[in-house]
Amino acid sequence: MKSIRYVLFCFFVSFIVVPRMCHAGAALDTDRASDLSCRLTDMDEFRKIFGPPIEEMAKVEGGMNLIGFRYENGLAVFGAYKEEAKPQYVLRRFFIDGRDVDIGCGSKMVLRGEKGLQELDMFSGFSGLSLKRVDLSGQSELLYRLPFDNETEWPDKLPQGCNKVIVY
């Protein structure tokens, strides 16, 4: 017959230690990273994909507040401008096994829908974005408030009275 110590030890290992080991510090992988996008993925969305990080670190660099999520084999860095009244931390860099993963920071970003409009910051705004998939017909205030540049791709649906603008 097994001793009570042995039974308690098995219970402890199988129901407390093992689940925590599997859940805490989940490994990052590029297969699950396909939905990530520079300047558009927020911290909650990242946690839903990869689970909670082993450690969160904060740092101020220039005019930006940074938060790092450390995982067993990687790091995700989120940033928000210090001047924003309600800072929106979005993904800026992503590393797996010491390699910088391409999340589209150097290419034109395609806004994924109207939810993405809330994730834009007041400094970059629509600059360098493709808005072709977004209905902006009810977003007059946002169009006047956020900056854009000659790389911005405009959708067909704009608010009444707004015209597509060419920046020189």
Describe the structure.
The protein is of the alpha+beta class. It has helices at residues 4-23, 43-50, 140-145, and strands at residues 55-61, 64-71, 74-81, 90-96, 99-100, 109-110, 129-130. It folds into two domains: 26-106, no CATH class; 108-168, no CATH class. The termini are far apart.
Mean pLDDT: 76
Distinct helical segment count = 3
Sheet with the most strands, sense and barrel status: 5 strands, antiparallel
Task: Summarize the helix and strand pattern as letters.
Answer: HHEEEEEEEH
Estimate the global geometry from the Cα principal axes: globular
Give the total of domains: 2
SS-derived structural category? alpha+beta
Secondary structure: number of strands: 7
How far is the N terminus from the C terminus?
A: 85 Å
Give the low-pLDDT segments: 1-25
Beta-strand proportion = 15-25%
Helix content: 10-25%
**Rg measurement, Å:** 21 Å
* Order of neighbouring strands in the sheet with most strands: 1-2-3-4-5
List key phrases describing it.
single chain; 168 residues; alpha+beta; 2 domains; five-stranded antiparallel beta sheet; two-stranded parallel ribbon; 20% helix; globular; disordered N terminus
